[in-house]
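Typical record was shown:
=====
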Amino acid sequence: MSAHQPPITAPEIASSAKRTANQAVDKPWIARFLRFGHIARGVIYLVVGMLAFRLSVGIRDVAMSQNGAIAVIGRQPFGHVLLVAVAVGFASYALWDLIRAVADPNYEGRSSTGRLKRIGFALGAFGYVGLAVITIQFIVGPRPHTATSYGTVAWVLSKPFGALLVGIVGLAWASISVVQMVRAWLGYFERNLELGKRSQAECRCARVLGRIGITTRSAVFAIVGIFLVASAVHANPHHSIGIDGALFGLARQPSGRTLLAAAGLGLVAFGVYSIMCARWMRIGSAASYSQSNQTSSV
């Protein structure tokens, strides 16, 4: 760097990263790769929903969680081949979350809500990278001993102000999930879909699957957040056991099997919706989408 060249500032780095992400997402082969990630995510939730429904009729297979779904896929014929595809899909969805956090192709904006959602996308990218790593561990060796939510929360609770931190995270998680439930039921997700060239029947299918599926998944996540708050209040990490624990929590309620069956079918709907998002989702930079709209309106 020249002695007279000014140092690169953080806004310039952010602008460069956003420009690079927009250029990448507009490449057709990258767009196809990103669409594949929706299929992998959908398959996982499809399996989790099926496991929940099977438990509602008295059949217990494995944990009703993403790890449990990965284990089920690995037991199928050509399981390792399927797991390789799932791992690639998770990497794809992690990249899509990262692009949404940096380039903002969904127009989340710089409002407080928009910034929070983009932070959520960034955290989601780390989560899907973790799932990709777990899937690879299933491929190369025996079932991995991954950290459980119980162990993680127990460790945090053992620290000073750990209960306060767990409580805040749980309350934020539950609150965001409730907001997502409301927005899903009101159909806000439709603005991220390309349905203009689809048939009326396909548009109705997208709206029904999205409304039911996203609402159900958000409700399950809200229960996870409530369990985190309960862990903080009672200093008991056993309250926090992820998606599996949330579904078991439903099963323990009055009419629990009915609630669990409904949740399972709702997660199946979300899985199908996510798979179809490989076709429906608007993937591209904000600028390219605006140009496409202008061209189509001429």
